[in-house]
Design brief:
Blueprint (H helix, E strand, L loop, with lengths): L4 H23 L18 E20 L5 E2 L4 E11 L6 E7 L6 E9 L2 E10 L2 E6 L5
Antiparallel strand pairs: 1-2, 1-3, 1-4, 1-5, 4-7, 5-6
């Protein structure tokens, strides 16, 4: 290429600038909007759920809820009452156990869950020996 070196330098710099402008426009950070205003977070609404276990024959009864101490009968009993405090919006599942005398044959374990006088769940489980199941509490 003939010509003046300073002119060639200027032409190369101008050409690279023309090619670099579209790349810069595409890769520059977009202007950001102001951060959204945060709504105050409401604390979890807690509710007391009453659980009643009733068995057809005397059995060792127990009920468990995640992150809370389990409630068990001291010996064979026909019923067990427990209260658990849980998040009202998303209550935990209950694990219920009934350890029946195998000689008693087929036995039933009824589970009732109440919230403020309303029945939320009412389930009956049948079995011989150890009856264990999970009761899902519906959202009120």
């Amino acid at each position: 290429m003939r010509g003046f070196p300073l002119l060639r330098l200027f032409l190369v710099a101008a050409g690279l600038s023309l090619l670099g402008v579209p790349v810069w426009l595409l890769t520059r950070p977009a202007p950001s909007a102001p951060p959204p205003a945060f709504a105050p977070v409401e604390p979890e609404k807690m509710a007391v759920y009453d659980v009643l276990l009733t068995s057809s024959t005397p059995a060792r009864l127990a009920v468990r809820v995640a992150n809370q101490p389990s409630v068990e009968s001291a010996g064979p009993a026909n019923s067990l009452t427990a209260s658990f405090t849980m998040n009202a919006a998303e209550p935990e599942d209950l694990a219920v156990f009934g350890n029946f005398d195998p000689a008693a044959g087929n036995s039933a374990l009824r589970v009732e869950v109440h919230l403020a006088g309303r029945t939320l769940a009412d389930s009956t489980f049948w079995g011989t020996g150890l009856v264990e199941d999970v009761v899902t509490i519906p959202k009120p």
